[in-house]
Amino acid sequence: MDNYSSFIRQFRPELSPKTLSQYSKQLRYLSDGYGLDFNPLQLTLDIIDIAIEDLSVKHITLVGLPYEKNIRLAVFRNLINIFSDHITPKDYQLLDSLILEEKIN
Fold first, then answer.
1. Greatest CA separation for the chain
2. What angle do CA 78, 67, 47 make, to 5 degrees?
3. Closest of 93, 29, 23, 36 to residue 64, by C-alpha
4. Measuring CA to CA, which of 8, 44, 70, 105 is 20 to 30 A from 25?
5. Residue 86: predicted pLDDT
6. 51, 95 contact by CB (below 8 A)
7. C-alpha dihedral sign at 29, 30, 32, 33
């Protein structure tokens, strides 16, 4: 099990092996896209900064197959839950709304 899988498993032990594999693949994809080695907190903060500035989460969902969009949104949702103590309640609510809006579109 790699760092990404171990990290996700630590916070979401109920995930099936298939879901865990998909989540770790997308987390790795996002980390690579942001030029980060394994650093989930920094990745989350970077994505949050862009999402709040743009009022959109499209920057994490543009590339790839349609089903990957929903997986990346789920991964991001899990990350903001895990690191909620680093996010203001107002920003948390905004991010939650942006994720929901992107899922609908």
1. 35
2. 40
3. 29
4. 105
5. 93
6. yes
7. positive
Q: Tens digit of pLDDT for each residue in 57-69?
A: 888 876 666 678 8
> 104 burial class (0-12, 13-18, 19+ CB within 10 angstroms)?
exposed
**Would you mind telling me the total number of residues written for the chain in this entry?**
105
* pTM given for the model: 0.83
**Helix, strand or coil for residue 3?**
helix
Tokens in use for 27? 């987390």
- How high is the mean pLDDT of the chain? 88
Q: How far apart are CA 37 and CA 100, in angstroms?
A: 28
Two structure tokens written together for 41: 């907190």
Closest CA to 40 of 1, 90, 5: 5
Gyration radius of the chain's alpha carbons:
13
